[in-house]
Amino acid sequence: MDSLMTALMMLAAPAALMAVMGGTLFGILVGALPGLGSVLGITVILPFTYMLDQTTSIALLLGTYCGSVYGGSISAILINTPGTPQSAATVLDGYPMARSGRPALALGWATVSSTFGGLLACGVLIVAAPALARFGLRFGPIEYFALGLFALSCIVSVARESLLKGVLAGLFGLFLATVGQDPVTGAMRFDYGFFELSAGVSLVPLLVGLFAVSEVLWRIAGPAEPGGASIMKAGFELPSLAELRLRFWLMVKSALIGTGIGTLPGIGATAASLVSYADAKRTSPRRDNFGRGEPDGIVASESANNAVTAGALVPTLSLGVPGDPVTAVMLGALTIQNITPGPRLFSENGDLVTYLFLALIAVNLAMFVLGALLAPAFSRLLKLPEPLLMASVVVLVTVGTYSVNSSAFDLGIVLLAGLVGFVLRWLAFPLAPVVIGFVLSPMIEGSLRQGMILTGDNIWAFGASPIAAVLFVLTGLFLLWPLYGWWRGRQRSGTGVHPVSGD
Question: For residue 180, with 0-12 CB atoms within 10 Å meaning exposed, 13-18 middle and 19 or more buried, which class applies?
Fold first, then answer.
């Protein structure tokens, strides 16, 4: 009870409330503008958190995260273009519903479903994360090393297009984290004579350059977008109580699907919304109307993808394992604020964790209020020219990054990371594994060295720990599963290569 009262007082502070509203508003704007996305929103806002305290920064980051996922539904409904990949399934019924003369009701369904999915997932997070963290208190250096390897294995899901490229990107992130002073011997590593690199590569310039600047460069280098659908005038209309009752259990089921998928490392909200939409299309009594503006399609997609925001925080907070690419960046953002996600977070920072839960609930409520109030402005927002948007991103990341340390060297890191990110995109390398490797590298290296000292440099003794052994097995299965799928595919294709011939 004391922890709850302390957290409520922290949330009631004017700065925290302003961060909830401001972060959510910024997230909705970023999500509504096609192609920007949650990762870009968080990386743009990240440098400014250095000027804020812990509680205000947490509220700002959570608001940006949740708001951006919801914001993607706005452009999906109004211009047939999902603002974020998470809203890809919302297009299928959201835009037809808007074209049939009901854009206000379509936005109302998206807002209600997003809020409901986010709040239900918050309840799951509050129950599941502490229980998982209590189990994690049994971890020592060996178990942490095994957990770090398992966390790295989520690269398999993030880089499903090319496992090899995902692994190489993760190794690149691991290498970047070794730049600077050796934590054990004090020797300098890979500084190449630059004094500024003696403390290592800073996380903020790396994230900002890798995602935000590379996105701008990618847009500049890409072909101009052809003229899309016309922007229709938007309002806001809540569904009737009877309609809400009719689809209540669909919202519950879709939110649970999103929460469950969110807790699985590396899968993300896009998969959750598509799985939920497919399930609703299969089981809904109104399945014949899907694709023609059926509210069930909007409800299934938006309840699921917004539930992922809280579901993905379950492994992130309790074990330090990112639930999706966005929480991989969130993991780095929390680390910057001297918050180390993992089992000890709940025992050592109980008030802060309770505050985080309450802030997440407040963000979802703010998302509903802002979505209802600002719907008429969304259609005008979507008319902004892309060059203006990209120029604004460059200005924000430059000013924000420089304000952290007043360092021109950091701006150089931003530019270099942006160029590297652009090249990685061009070569079809995923960017999220780089962040995952960079964030997890200190834990993996430190726990490995401590474990080797404890076992007398006998790495085979790591398997004597039951928890570590299970994690090692799970990591191996996670890494080998794509190879098994590839082998099965070869077997199936092989059966068709030699057809049986008749006389």
Answer: middle
